[in-house]
Amino acid sequence: MNKSARAIALETLIRILQDGSYSNISLNNSLNNSHLSQTDQNLATRLVYGTVQYKIFLDYQLKGLLKTKITEKYLYPLLLMSLYQLIFLDKIPDRAVLDEANKLAKQFGKRHSAGFKIANGILRSFIRRGVILPDESDQIEYLSVKESFPTWLVQYFIDHWGEKRTQKILQSFNETAKNSVRLSSLKNKGKTLNGLRKLGFDPQESLLSSQVAILSKGGVSETDLFKNGDLTIQDEAASLVVDAFDFKGDEQVLDACSAPGGKTVQIAENLTSGKVTALDIHEKKLRLVRQNAKRMGVSDKLVAKAVDARKADQYFSGQEFAKILVDAPCSGLGLLRRKPEIRYTKSKKDLLSLQKIQLDILDHVSHLLQENGGLVYSTCTISTEEDEDVVKSFLASHPKFELVPFKLKKIASNSGMLKILPDSYGSDGFFIAKFKLRG
Ligand SMILES: C[S@@+](CC[C@H](N)C(=O)[O-])C[C@H]1O[C@@H](n2cnc3c(N)ncnc32)[C@H](O)[C@@H]1O
User: Fold this and answer.
1) 144 and 104 in a common domain
2) CA 288, CA 285: separation in Å to the nearest integer?
3) Are residues 46 and 70 both part of a single domain?
4) Is 439 within any annotated ligand binding site?
5) Is the pLDDT of residue 336 over 90?
6) 285/265 Cα distance (integer angstroms)
7) What's the distance, Cα to Cα, between the start and end of the chain in Å?
8) What is the spatial distance between Cα 21 and Cα 32, in angstroms, rounded to a whole number?
9) How far is CA 116 from CA 8, 16, 177, 247, 348, in A?
10) Does the beta carbon of 258 lie inside 6 Å of ligand 1?
11) Which residues are bridge partners to 254 per DSSP?
Protein backbone atom coordinates (compact mmCIF):
# COMPACT_ATOMS: atom_id res chain seq x y z
CA MET A 1 0.00 0.00 0.00
CA ASN A 2 1.31 3.44 -0.90
CA LYS A 3 1.85 5.63 2.15
CA SER A 4 0.04 8.95 2.52
CA ALA A 5 1.82 12.31 2.82
CA ARG A 6 1.05 12.38 6.56
CA ALA A 7 2.35 8.84 7.12
CA ILE A 8 5.60 9.76 5.35
CA ALA A 9 5.82 12.95 7.41
CA LEU A 10 5.22 11.04 10.64
CA GLU A 11 7.80 8.33 9.98
CA THR A 12 10.32 11.05 9.07
CA LEU A 13 9.51 12.96 12.27
CA ILE A 14 9.97 9.81 14.36
CA ARG A 15 13.46 9.47 12.89
CA ILE A 16 14.30 13.14 13.50
CA LEU A 17 12.72 13.64 16.94
CA GLN A 18 13.32 10.20 18.45
CA ASP A 19 16.45 8.95 16.64
CA GLY A 20 18.32 12.22 16.04
CA SER A 21 18.40 12.02 12.21
CA TYR A 22 18.91 15.16 10.08
CA SER A 23 15.67 16.60 8.66
CA ASN A 24 16.85 17.18 5.09
CA ILE A 25 18.49 13.76 4.69
CA SER A 26 15.62 11.87 6.36
CA LEU A 27 12.97 13.67 4.38
CA ASN A 28 14.77 13.24 1.05
CA ASN A 29 15.16 9.50 1.71
CA SER A 30 11.47 9.13 2.57
CA LEU A 31 10.28 11.19 -0.39
CA ASN A 32 12.58 9.41 -2.85
CA ASN A 33 11.14 6.06 -1.76
CA SER A 34 7.55 7.27 -1.98
CA HIS A 35 5.03 7.59 -4.80
CA LEU A 36 3.67 10.94 -3.67
CA SER A 37 2.49 13.59 -6.12
CA GLN A 38 4.28 16.98 -6.01
CA THR A 39 1.40 18.45 -3.97
CA ASP A 40 1.61 15.64 -1.42
CA GLN A 41 5.41 15.93 -1.29
CA ASN A 42 4.95 19.63 -0.53
CA LEU A 43 2.52 18.79 2.28
CA ALA A 44 4.88 16.18 3.79
CA THR A 45 7.76 18.67 3.59
CA ARG A 46 5.71 21.41 5.24
CA LEU A 47 4.61 19.09 8.05
CA VAL A 48 8.14 17.87 8.78
CA TYR A 49 9.88 21.24 8.64
CA GLY A 50 7.08 23.07 10.43
CA THR A 51 6.87 20.56 13.26
CA VAL A 52 10.64 20.47 13.79
CA GLN A 53 10.90 24.25 13.55
CA TYR A 54 8.14 24.85 16.12
CA LYS A 55 9.00 21.93 18.42
CA ILE A 56 9.53 24.06 21.57
CA PHE A 57 6.34 26.04 20.90
CA LEU A 58 4.29 22.91 20.17
CA ASP A 59 5.73 21.08 23.15
CA TYR A 60 4.63 23.99 25.36
CA GLN A 61 1.08 23.62 24.06
CA LEU A 62 0.96 20.12 25.57
CA LYS A 63 1.35 21.68 29.05
CA GLY A 64 -1.47 20.49 31.28
CA LEU A 65 -2.91 18.21 28.60
CA LEU A 66 -0.83 15.08 29.10
CA LYS A 67 -2.67 13.04 31.71
CA THR A 68 -0.99 9.70 30.97
CA LYS A 69 2.64 8.88 30.23
CA ILE A 70 3.25 8.54 26.50
CA THR A 71 5.11 5.30 25.90
CA GLU A 72 4.62 4.49 22.23
CA LYS A 73 7.35 6.02 20.08
CA TYR A 74 5.09 7.46 17.38
CA LEU A 75 2.71 9.27 19.73
CA TYR A 76 4.76 12.33 20.68
CA PRO A 77 5.72 13.16 17.04
CA LEU A 78 2.08 12.59 16.03
CA LEU A 79 0.83 15.00 18.69
CA LEU A 80 3.31 17.69 17.66
CA MET A 81 2.54 17.23 13.97
CA SER A 82 -1.21 17.43 14.62
CA LEU A 83 -0.84 20.53 16.80
CA TYR A 84 1.25 22.12 14.04
CA GLN A 85 -1.61 21.61 11.59
CA LEU A 86 -4.26 22.86 14.01
CA ILE A 87 -2.29 26.03 14.78
CA PHE A 88 -0.48 26.92 11.57
CA LEU A 89 -2.33 25.36 8.62
CA ASP A 90 -5.55 27.35 8.33
CA LYS A 91 -6.71 25.53 5.22
CA ILE A 92 -6.92 22.17 7.00
CA PRO A 93 -10.12 21.96 9.11
CA ASP A 94 -9.72 20.75 12.73
CA ARG A 95 -12.02 17.80 11.96
CA ALA A 96 -9.64 16.58 9.22
CA VAL A 97 -6.62 16.87 11.54
CA LEU A 98 -8.38 14.75 14.17
CA ASP A 99 -9.48 12.14 11.64
CA GLU A 100 -6.00 11.87 10.15
CA ALA A 101 -4.41 11.61 13.62
CA ASN A 102 -6.82 8.82 14.39
CA LYS A 103 -5.88 6.90 11.25
CA LEU A 104 -2.16 7.38 11.83
CA ALA A 105 -2.41 6.25 15.46
CA LYS A 106 -4.08 3.04 14.30
CA GLN A 107 -1.50 2.57 11.57
CA PHE A 108 1.61 3.25 13.71
CA GLY A 109 0.36 1.97 17.09
CA LYS A 110 0.63 -1.53 18.53
CA ARG A 111 -2.36 -3.88 18.15
CA HIS A 112 -5.08 -3.06 20.69
CA SER A 113 -3.22 0.10 21.67
CA ALA A 114 -5.26 2.95 23.12
CA GLY A 115 -2.93 5.46 21.47
CA PHE A 116 -5.59 6.79 19.14
CA LYS A 117 -7.86 7.59 22.11
CA ILE A 118 -5.04 9.36 23.94
CA ALA A 119 -4.19 11.43 20.84
CA ASN A 120 -7.81 12.26 20.24
CA GLY A 121 -8.39 13.35 23.85
CA ILE A 122 -5.32 15.57 23.95
CA LEU A 123 -6.04 17.22 20.60
CA ARG A 124 -9.70 17.88 21.50
CA SER A 125 -8.63 19.41 24.83
CA PHE A 126 -6.18 21.63 22.96
CA ILE A 127 -8.88 22.78 20.52
CA ARG A 128 -11.09 23.75 23.51
CA ARG A 129 -8.28 25.57 25.34
CA GLY A 130 -6.28 27.19 22.49
CA VAL A 131 -2.69 28.44 22.28
CA ILE A 132 -0.80 29.39 25.45
CA LEU A 133 2.41 31.40 25.89
CA PRO A 134 4.59 32.21 28.92
CA ASP A 135 4.26 35.59 30.61
CA GLU A 136 5.94 38.38 28.65
CA SER A 137 7.69 39.67 31.78
CA ASP A 138 10.37 37.03 31.15
CA GLN A 139 11.39 37.96 27.59
CA ILE A 140 13.88 35.12 27.23
CA GLU A 141 11.35 32.43 28.16
CA TYR A 142 8.59 34.20 26.20
CA LEU A 143 10.63 34.49 22.99
CA SER A 144 12.04 31.00 23.44
CA VAL A 145 8.53 29.52 23.36
CA LYS A 146 6.94 31.97 20.92
CA GLU A 147 9.64 31.59 18.26
CA SER A 148 10.67 28.09 19.32
CA PHE A 149 14.35 28.64 20.07
CA PRO A 150 16.26 27.28 23.08
CA THR A 151 16.75 29.88 25.81
CA TRP A 152 20.56 29.91 25.46
CA LEU A 153 20.25 30.93 21.82
CA VAL A 154 17.69 33.67 22.55
CA GLN A 155 20.02 34.98 25.28
CA TYR A 156 22.99 34.74 22.87
CA PHE A 157 21.21 36.75 20.15
CA ILE A 158 20.04 39.38 22.69
CA ASP A 159 23.59 39.72 24.09
CA HIS A 160 24.93 40.35 20.57
CA TRP A 161 22.13 42.23 18.79
CA GLY A 162 19.74 43.49 21.47
CA GLU A 163 16.11 42.55 22.07
CA LYS A 164 14.46 44.28 19.08
CA ARG A 165 16.86 42.88 16.48
CA THR A 166 16.70 39.46 18.12
CA GLN A 167 12.93 39.38 17.59
CA LYS A 168 13.47 40.14 13.90
CA ILE A 169 16.23 37.55 13.58
CA LEU A 170 14.14 34.83 15.24
CA GLN A 171 11.07 35.62 13.14
CA SER A 172 13.16 35.68 10.01
CA PHE A 173 14.63 32.25 10.80
CA ASN A 174 11.08 30.89 11.00
CA GLU A 175 10.17 32.11 7.52
CA THR A 176 10.25 29.69 4.60
CA ALA A 177 13.65 29.53 2.88
CA LYS A 178 13.72 31.02 -0.61
CA ASN A 179 14.24 28.92 -3.72
CA SER A 180 17.47 30.45 -4.88
CA VAL A 181 19.58 29.47 -7.89
CA ARG A 182 22.94 30.73 -9.15
CA LEU A 183 23.16 30.98 -12.91
CA SER A 184 26.30 29.52 -14.44
CA SER A 185 28.61 32.27 -15.65
CA LEU A 186 29.65 29.97 -18.51
CA LYS A 187 26.14 29.98 -19.97
CA ASN A 188 23.93 32.67 -21.46
CA LYS A 189 22.15 34.25 -18.52
CA GLY A 190 19.23 35.67 -20.57
CA LYS A 191 18.56 32.28 -22.11
CA THR A 192 18.57 30.55 -18.73
CA LEU A 193 16.19 33.15 -17.27
CA ASN A 194 13.87 32.73 -20.26
CA GLY A 195 13.93 28.97 -19.77
CA LEU A 196 12.97 29.44 -16.12
CA ARG A 197 10.13 31.80 -17.08
CA LYS A 198 8.76 29.31 -19.60
CA LEU A 199 8.67 26.64 -16.89
CA GLY A 200 6.72 28.94 -14.56
CA PHE A 201 9.51 29.60 -12.03
CA ASP A 202 9.06 33.39 -12.34
CA PRO A 203 12.74 34.21 -11.62
CA GLN A 204 13.42 37.49 -9.78
CA GLU A 205 16.90 38.96 -9.43
CA SER A 206 18.39 38.62 -5.92
CA LEU A 207 19.05 41.78 -3.92
CA LEU A 208 22.54 40.47 -3.18
CA SER A 209 23.78 39.22 -6.52
CA SER A 210 22.91 39.78 -10.18
CA GLN A 211 23.97 36.19 -10.88
CA VAL A 212 21.35 34.75 -8.53
CA ALA A 213 17.62 34.37 -9.17
CA ILE A 214 14.88 33.75 -6.64
CA LEU A 215 12.27 31.30 -7.90
CA SER A 216 8.58 31.25 -7.07
CA LYS A 217 8.51 27.47 -6.47
CA GLY A 218 10.72 24.46 -5.83
CA GLY A 219 11.49 21.50 -8.07
CA VAL A 220 14.14 23.14 -10.28
CA SER A 221 16.48 20.15 -9.83
CA GLU A 222 14.05 18.12 -11.98
CA THR A 223 14.50 20.43 -14.97
CA ASP A 224 16.90 20.16 -17.92
CA LEU A 225 18.26 23.59 -17.00
CA PHE A 226 19.61 22.09 -13.80
CA LYS A 227 20.66 18.78 -15.35
CA ASN A 228 22.54 20.57 -18.15
CA GLY A 229 24.42 22.83 -15.74
CA ASP A 230 22.79 26.12 -16.75
CA LEU A 231 22.22 26.79 -13.07
CA THR A 232 22.82 25.36 -9.65
CA ILE A 233 20.96 25.54 -6.35
CA GLN A 234 22.79 27.95 -4.07
CA ASP A 235 21.70 30.47 -1.47
CA GLU A 236 22.23 34.11 -2.46
CA ALA A 237 24.54 34.84 0.52
CA ALA A 238 26.55 31.66 -0.08
CA SER A 239 27.07 32.75 -3.67
CA LEU A 240 28.93 35.88 -2.52
CA VAL A 241 31.89 34.03 -0.98
CA VAL A 242 33.66 33.19 -4.25
CA ASP A 243 32.91 36.66 -5.62
CA ALA A 244 35.15 38.07 -2.87
CA PHE A 245 38.18 36.87 -4.91
CA ASP A 246 39.39 38.74 -8.02
CA PHE A 247 40.28 36.05 -10.53
CA LYS A 248 42.71 36.36 -13.43
CA GLY A 249 41.88 32.87 -14.67
CA ASP A 250 45.28 31.19 -14.66
CA GLU A 251 45.57 30.69 -10.89
CA GLN A 252 46.02 27.54 -8.85
CA VAL A 253 43.28 27.72 -6.22
CA LEU A 254 42.83 25.63 -3.09
CA ASP A 255 39.32 24.98 -1.79
CA ALA A 256 40.16 23.50 1.62
CA CYS A 257 36.68 22.34 2.71
CA SER A 258 34.91 21.75 -0.55
CA ALA A 259 32.02 19.27 -0.32
CA PRO A 260 29.39 19.24 -1.72
CA GLY A 261 31.18 21.59 -4.11
CA GLY A 262 28.86 24.58 -4.53
CA LYS A 263 31.75 26.99 -4.25
CA THR A 264 34.28 24.73 -5.99
CA VAL A 265 32.31 24.84 -9.24
CA GLN A 266 31.87 28.58 -8.87
CA ILE A 267 35.65 28.99 -8.54
CA ALA A 268 36.18 26.70 -11.54
CA GLU A 269 33.81 28.84 -13.65
CA ASN A 270 36.25 31.72 -13.12
CA LEU A 271 39.32 29.79 -14.29
CA THR A 272 40.75 29.51 -17.80
CA SER A 273 44.10 27.72 -17.59
CA GLY A 274 44.01 27.52 -13.77
CA LYS A 275 42.82 24.63 -11.64
CA VAL A 276 40.99 24.28 -8.35
CA THR A 277 42.20 21.67 -5.88
CA ALA A 278 39.23 20.63 -3.78
CA LEU A 279 39.88 18.98 -0.42
CA ASP A 280 37.48 17.43 2.02
CA ILE A 281 38.09 15.28 5.04
CA HIS A 282 35.39 12.84 3.90
CA GLU A 283 36.33 10.87 0.79
CA LYS A 284 32.65 9.92 0.27
CA LYS A 285 31.57 13.55 0.05
CA LEU A 286 34.07 14.25 -2.76
CA ARG A 287 31.81 12.23 -5.04
CA LEU A 288 29.30 15.07 -4.74
CA VAL A 289 31.99 17.60 -5.67
CA ARG A 290 32.91 15.57 -8.77
CA GLN A 291 29.24 15.16 -9.74
CA ASN A 292 28.61 18.87 -9.32
CA ALA A 293 31.68 19.75 -11.40
CA LYS A 294 30.60 17.34 -14.14
CA ARG A 295 27.05 18.70 -14.25
CA MET A 296 28.28 22.28 -14.37
CA GLY A 297 30.81 21.44 -17.13
CA VAL A 298 34.00 22.26 -15.20
CA SER A 299 35.47 18.80 -14.49
CA ASP A 300 38.60 19.67 -16.46
CA LYS A 301 39.39 22.40 -13.90
CA LEU A 302 39.05 20.14 -10.85
CA VAL A 303 41.51 18.11 -8.81
CA ALA A 304 39.72 16.47 -5.84
CA LYS A 305 41.60 14.97 -2.89
CA ALA A 306 40.45 13.49 0.43
CA VAL A 307 42.66 15.37 2.87
CA ASP A 308 42.20 16.74 6.39
CA ALA A 309 42.87 20.44 5.81
CA ARG A 310 44.59 20.52 9.21
CA LYS A 311 47.31 18.43 7.59
CA ALA A 312 47.21 20.11 4.17
CA ASP A 313 50.78 21.39 4.53
CA GLN A 314 52.01 17.76 4.58
CA TYR A 315 50.48 17.13 1.12
CA PHE A 316 51.68 20.19 -0.73
CA SER A 317 55.27 21.29 -1.03
CA GLY A 318 55.12 25.02 -0.38
CA GLN A 319 53.44 28.23 -1.38
CA GLU A 320 51.60 26.58 -4.28
CA PHE A 321 48.35 28.49 -4.36
CA ALA A 322 47.49 32.01 -5.49
CA LYS A 323 44.12 31.83 -3.78
CA ILE A 324 42.75 29.77 -0.93
CA LEU A 325 39.18 29.38 0.22
CA VAL A 326 38.38 28.07 3.70
CA ASP A 327 34.59 27.62 3.77
CA ALA A 328 34.90 26.13 7.19
CA PRO A 329 32.89 23.49 9.03
CA CYS A 330 30.77 25.52 11.46
CA SER A 331 27.71 25.44 13.71
CA GLY A 332 25.48 26.38 10.75
CA LEU A 333 23.48 28.89 12.79
CA GLY A 334 22.94 30.91 9.61
CA LEU A 335 21.06 28.00 8.04
CA LEU A 336 18.30 27.70 10.62
CA ARG A 337 15.58 28.13 7.99
CA ARG A 338 16.81 25.19 5.94
CA LYS A 339 17.94 22.97 8.82
CA PRO A 340 15.55 23.84 11.65
CA GLU A 341 16.82 21.18 14.07
CA ILE A 342 20.24 22.87 14.33
CA ARG A 343 18.70 25.11 17.01
CA TYR A 344 18.18 22.08 19.26
CA THR A 345 21.38 20.18 18.54
CA LYS A 346 24.02 22.89 18.89
CA SER A 347 25.20 24.25 22.21
CA LYS A 348 27.32 27.22 23.21
CA LYS A 349 30.20 24.83 23.88
CA ASP A 350 30.16 23.77 20.20
CA LEU A 351 30.97 27.32 19.10
CA LEU A 352 34.34 27.18 20.85
CA SER A 353 35.23 23.65 19.80
CA LEU A 354 34.44 24.57 16.19
CA GLN A 355 36.53 27.73 16.55
CA LYS A 356 39.51 25.55 17.40
CA ILE A 357 39.05 23.48 14.21
CA GLN A 358 38.55 26.62 12.11
CA LEU A 359 41.77 28.17 13.42
CA ASP A 360 43.65 24.91 12.94
CA ILE A 361 42.54 24.70 9.31
CA LEU A 362 43.41 28.35 8.64
CA ASP A 363 46.83 27.93 10.24
CA HIS A 364 47.77 24.88 8.18
CA VAL A 365 46.54 26.12 4.81
CA SER A 366 48.03 29.58 5.30
CA HIS A 367 51.54 28.14 4.68
CA LEU A 368 50.43 27.16 1.17
CA LEU A 369 49.55 30.66 -0.02
CA GLN A 370 51.82 32.62 -2.37
CA GLU A 371 52.97 36.08 -1.36
CA ASN A 372 50.34 38.70 -2.22
CA GLY A 373 47.85 35.83 -2.54
CA GLY A 374 44.25 36.02 -1.29
CA LEU A 375 42.72 33.91 1.45
CA VAL A 376 38.96 33.97 1.96
CA TYR A 377 37.49 32.58 5.16
CA SER A 378 33.74 32.00 5.28
CA THR A 379 31.11 30.35 7.45
CA CYS A 380 27.36 29.81 7.28
CA THR A 381 27.04 30.83 10.90
CA ILE A 382 26.52 34.15 12.64
CA SER A 383 28.26 33.35 15.93
CA THR A 384 31.02 35.80 16.88
CA GLU A 385 33.16 32.93 18.20
CA GLU A 386 33.34 31.34 14.74
CA ASP A 387 33.47 34.57 12.74
CA GLU A 388 35.06 37.79 14.06
CA ASP A 389 36.93 36.01 16.90
CA VAL A 390 38.51 33.57 14.46
CA VAL A 391 39.67 36.48 12.28
CA LYS A 392 41.12 38.29 15.30
CA SER A 393 42.95 35.21 16.55
CA PHE A 394 44.26 34.29 13.11
CA LEU A 395 45.63 37.79 12.53
CA ALA A 396 47.26 37.84 15.97
CA SER A 397 49.17 34.63 15.26
CA HIS A 398 49.86 35.35 11.55
CA PRO A 399 51.22 38.91 11.39
CA LYS A 400 52.06 38.71 7.66
CA PHE A 401 48.33 38.49 6.87
CA GLU A 402 46.03 41.51 6.74
CA LEU A 403 42.33 42.03 6.07
CA VAL A 404 41.58 43.59 2.67
CA PRO A 405 38.40 45.37 1.50
CA PHE A 406 36.41 43.60 -1.21
CA LYS A 407 33.70 44.50 -3.67
CA LEU A 408 30.93 42.13 -4.66
CA LYS A 409 28.38 42.50 -7.45
CA LYS A 410 25.92 44.52 -5.34
CA ILE A 411 27.54 45.15 -1.95
CA ALA A 412 31.03 45.81 -0.65
CA SER A 413 33.05 45.44 2.54
CA ASN A 414 35.49 48.20 3.48
CA SER A 415 36.71 46.40 6.59
CA GLY A 416 37.51 43.12 4.86
CA MET A 417 34.75 41.39 6.83
CA LEU A 418 31.10 41.00 5.87
CA LYS A 419 28.43 39.59 8.12
CA ILE A 420 24.99 38.98 6.65
CA LEU A 421 22.23 38.44 9.19
CA PRO A 422 19.16 36.48 8.04
CA ASP A 423 16.72 39.37 8.42
CA SER A 424 18.72 41.82 6.28
CA TYR A 425 18.03 40.29 2.86
CA GLY A 426 16.04 37.15 3.75
CA SER A 427 19.08 35.05 2.80
CA ASP A 428 20.98 32.52 4.90
CA GLY A 429 23.18 34.06 7.58
CA PHE A 430 26.77 34.22 6.34
CA PHE A 431 30.21 35.56 7.21
CA ILE A 432 33.02 36.37 4.79
CA ALA A 433 36.52 37.66 5.58
CA LYS A 434 39.22 38.33 3.02
CA PHE A 435 42.94 38.33 3.86
CA LYS A 436 46.06 39.05 1.87
CA LEU A 437 49.51 37.64 2.55
CA ARG A 438 51.88 40.61 2.40
CA GLY A 439 54.83 40.23 0.02
C1 LIG B 1 30.53 24.31 5.11
S2 LIG B 1 30.87 22.78 4.38
C3 LIG B 1 31.57 23.29 2.86
C4 LIG B 1 30.57 23.65 1.81
C5 LIG B 1 31.19 23.80 0.45
N6 LIG B 1 32.29 24.74 0.45
C7 LIG B 1 30.19 24.24 -0.61
O8 LIG B 1 30.11 25.42 -0.93
O9 LIG B 1 29.49 23.37 -1.12
C10 LIG B 1 32.28 22.25 5.25
C11 LIG B 1 32.92 21.01 4.69
O12 LIG B 1 34.15 20.83 5.41
C13 LIG B 1 34.41 19.47 5.53
N14 LIG B 1 35.41 19.33 6.62
C15 LIG B 1 35.20 19.28 7.95
N16 LIG B 1 36.38 19.20 8.60
C17 LIG B 1 37.35 19.23 7.65
C18 LIG B 1 38.76 19.18 7.68
N19 LIG B 1 39.42 19.08 8.83
N20 LIG B 1 39.42 19.21 6.51
C21 LIG B 1 38.77 19.29 5.32
N22 LIG B 1 37.43 19.33 5.24
C23 LIG B 1 36.73 19.31 6.38
C24 LIG B 1 33.07 18.85 5.79
O25 LIG B 1 33.07 17.50 5.42
C26 LIG B 1 32.16 19.72 4.89
O27 LIG B 1 31.96 19.07 3.67
Assistant:
1) no
2) 6
3) yes
4) no
5) yes
6) 15
7) 68
8) 16
9) 18, 22, 34, 62, 39
10) yes
11) 277, 324
263 with 115, same domain: the answer is no
HSE-CB for 80 with a 13 A CA cutoff? 29
Annotated active-site residue 330? The verdict is no
**Is residue 134 domain-resident?**
no
Q: Is residue 74 assigned to a domain?
A: yes
Concatenating the DSSP letter of every residue in 175-218 gives SPPPEEEEEPTTS-HHHHHHHHHHTT---EE-SS-TTEEEESSS
3-state secondary structure of 407: strand
List the CATH number of the domain containing 211.
3.30.70.1170
Rounded Cα distance, 197 and 202, in Å: 5
> What's the gap in Å between 392 CA and the centre of ligand 1?
22
* Identity of residue 391: V
The pLDDT tens digits of the residues spanning 135-162 come to 999 999 999 999 999 999 999 999 999 9
Q: What mean pLDDT comes out for the span 420-427? A: 97
pTM: 0.94
CA distance 149 to 145: 7
Q: Is residue 362 within 6 Å of ligand 1 at its C-beta?
A: no
One domain, residues 207 and 165: no
Asked whether this complex has an ipTM greater than 0.90, the answer is: yes
CA distance 181 to 420: 18
Question: Is residue 149 domain-shared with residue 46, that is, in the same domain?
Answer: no
Q: Which domain holds residue 216?
A: 179-233
The reply to whether 162 sits in an annotated binding site is no
Count CB-CB contacts under 10 A for residue 270.
22
According to DSSP, residue 15 is labeled I
Nearest CA to ligand 1 atom 6: 258
Same domain, 61 and 208: no
CA 370 to CA 36: how far, in whole Å?
A: 53
- Whether 106 and 87 have beta carbons less than 8 Å apart is answered as no
Whether 258 shows a pLDDT value over 70: the answer reads yes
Pocket test for ligand 1, best of 25, 239, 280 (most atoms within 8 A of CB): 280
Counting the structural domains of the chain, the total is 4
Task: Tell me: is residue 219 an annotated ligand-binding position.
Answer: no
Q: Is 368 in the pocket of ligand 1 (CB under 6 A)?
A: no
Distance of CA 98 to the CA centre of its chain: 33
pLDDT digits (tens, 9 = 90+) for 72-101: 899 999 999 999 999 999 999 999 999 999
- pLDDT over 80 (residue 255): yes
Calculated CA dihedral for residues 248, 250, 256, 258, nearest 10 degrees: 90
For residue 37, give the CATH number of its domain. 1.10.940.10
